[in-house]
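quick one, 281 residues, struct below
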Amino acid sequence: MILMNSQYGAIEENGGKMNRREFLRGLGHEAGDMALYTGLGAALYHARSIGKSIVDAGYEELRHSTRSEELTQRLDGLNKKLRYKSGNRIAMETQDKRFRELMEKERTEPGSVKPGYGTVIGDFARLLFGEAREYYEHEEYPGWVGDVVLTRYERSGATLKSVIFDRVIVKDANGKKKVLGHQFNCFNEWDPNYPFIIDPLRDSMKHPEDRVSWESLYGFAEAKLKQGPGHAVTHYWVHPTARKPYWAKGREPLKTIKLNGKTSRFYDLGDYRTSIVVSHA
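---
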């Protein structure tokens, strides 16, 4: 009966040749090899674990480093935007401050600012003052005059200043153009209202109501620009101050206002282009 058999020999239960020394030596070698292999395997496994930890740590560090770099770049970008916005805000505040200062100067000392060189609010107020200063308290008249200006502005595509200071240009039968003056007569030097366009308060010492009228219409102009036109009208004329214009012939006015012996008629002539009024003079 064989109790054990290996490459180093055999031990038999009865009568066989016993090679114990060989057996023990072989067993020792096998145990040593197994221990060696086990130790090496454990060492390799441990080393592999350590290596993986190192790689993982390096990856995390790299990832965090990349994220940190990205965050830094984003923060730099945001800081630049904030500085840019801050600079714009300061510039806008400065501009707004200067605008408000100019508005206050126009309102209190309009003669110190030339027409066309101030704010559009001031120019709009001058037009209203020249065309409607005696009716500044009327609930409709200043609004209808303002509607003419703002309707032209919306339809022409031009700037508001261009509409306010627009000129009348006529064409003769040969197509030759001729400049007759401003669309709104108060801006023409020959008009009796022109001195009050240059300085609305020129006679305010003698006529204190002029200051009340000017400041009222200045505030109205500012509010009207925010509201826009209340009625679609492009032209008006006043009888008997002016003769009936050619464009009013055969047309019914949309609005008629009678004040102090004068009759103002308002019309909508459709599309409007600045500086072009076709007529055959």
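Confidence is low (pLDDT under 50) at residues 1-18, 275-281.
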